[in-house]
């Protein structure tokens, strides 16, 4: 680590005075948002009608966040930095709103909330008020990419934002309650993946104010030496700031930021100019200030400041309690607002002395509005990667391996611009995507051994055995204007359920804000899926992420189940080009039959659902039964069932419908991709039995289609939580998704077949019995299953 370089002189007393003015103004505005409905400048004594009827918001963390924002302004302005700040503490909304209003970025996005008395009144009124803005840092807040309620993800988001942005400083304020979460604890390891040559810098600011809602925080109670040892063990060099005297803390915070930024600049210079390759020990600022600092010291004789009681609203009964009202007025006037704002409510020059200009303001940085920076991804011609299909169901490919060749080209074509990354938890090669290693290794800054493969300090493939970090990194990367793909075992993507919830909510809200430009979609590739986890067993068998996602905002979510390699290519091409969506693609990595040529795959995927005429036996007439399928293994079982029906019941008119885009099953009024009733009835009929083989939990299909005319005729087979370590075909048999059961379902549901085809049904049941005995004797599937192909 290069020696610290004192390239900046300490701020003068005059600069410290203006920094304090800015901080006091921000504190005043933060408290005003929580309490005031009117009288924003206190031009008259406070009365109960000036107070909001419902007091909502969080004061405890606000003074510390205001301190950080104020001092970041100073160094950004002094050093000409491009910077972004991630505000981790849960409900820091009052502070970030206050500071963006002071710097003018808020009024630029919302002209009716200008920097004057009427604008201040609107700023106060709208906070946590019906028709207003939330109490946390949300998409509505300029300069934000991180939802304030997402405790635990701030540092991962910060690193994602810094990757491939070499000129960017990403400050990340970490609340000490947030620091107790598992995702945040893992996020400290992100520094082993940060490339000082091609990436920006992350400056964590661990804010220790001592308390959560009702309890002390773990890190705040550690002795300083023990906390230092922990942070140094994570690979950071701590810089400490502590105190409750504003003048002392201002001076210490200015010194700490200068020290940290000098260290960062020296490390980047050593790597970029001198060719240094040793891993950097990056600085972290440990900031200890009282919770609820500068607020009421006591309320009703009970300590409040520097206790958990200041976490939310320190003075709760202001409208009803005259003493509390008097105490609130004294608190607000202690900031001397008459010195901070002129008669028209505008911030005075001293308050704005530290504020950067233009796009360097934290609330105006384009890095927090990534759609302004995103470029079209160079997508290659799919025909260059397509597998030849002369006849359906006669050749096999591993779909994700084919996709890996496409991703290799995307990675190659973005090598110069560095705006595409592939993330996954130690599964890139396992998921057959290892072709990408031909053009980019795996990001890695820690030690290496001779046996290691594909580790590269400048790599853009990200692997760490934490789905939380993969998700957080990619979200930060996308939200700051880049592209990516998250590859994961299907069963374990559930680990990020709450994270995808928040990202979907973020996207939905952002769509309603005209000033937020669309960003590249969050794309999941879920493979090693339920039907081909027969070797790993029950713990690895869970297709429920699709159910989870489809509960969310329909304008944002998309779910695709491509049945073969060429349809996977088509779906991936669409997903990687798209904006403002969460795309979930479920595809297998094991050898899978090729059903459609590339041209056919494009057309089929554009439809989202369609009849495979070559697979059915309608012969131009109306079907007697519809076999529906969604997913690669269910598609194979449906086609095998159709083949059996053609062989044993040739007079039966069978229609085969394959669904790639699962949201097509929803009504048009419920989802943009949904089918009209006319379209749905045309595919599935209004009065014929429909036997539907689905990749996941069968009741999802019923939920999607419950309002359709023929829903009473719909019978769905899928995964019903029956799994173990067994053979591939036994997995479908155990869940009644196999070809023999599907044929039995058709016989049971087509009128007149129960008696006429009783012998056929018996043969199917016998085949299931033979299967049961065979696998226990031989450990492999029946030859008629293992060697099956589409030969009609």
TrEMBL record:
The keyword GTP-binding does not apply. Residues 12-372 form the Xylulose 5-phosphate/Fructose 6-phosphate phosphoketolase N-terminal domain. Residues 589-790 form the Xylulose 5-phosphate/Fructose 6-phosphate phosphoketolase C-terminal domain. Belongs to the XFP family. Signal peptide: none annotated. Keywords: Lyase, Thiamine pyrophosphate. The keyword Hydrolase does not apply. This is Probable phosphoketolase. Its EC number is 4.1.2.-. InterPro entries: Phosphoketolase (IPR023962), THDP-binding (IPR029061), Transketo_C/PFOR_II (IPR009014), Xul5P/Fru6P_PKetolase (IPR005593), Xul5P/Fru6P_PKetolase_C (IPR018969), Xul5P/Fru6P_PKetolase_CS (IPR019790), Xul5P/Fru6P_PKetolase_N (IPR018970), Xul5P/Fru6P_PKetolase_ThDP_BS (IPR019789). It is an enzyme of class 4 (lyase). It comes from Streptomyces prasinus. Its cofactor is thiamine diphosphate. SUPFAM superfamilies: Thiamin diphosphate-binding fold (THDP-binding).
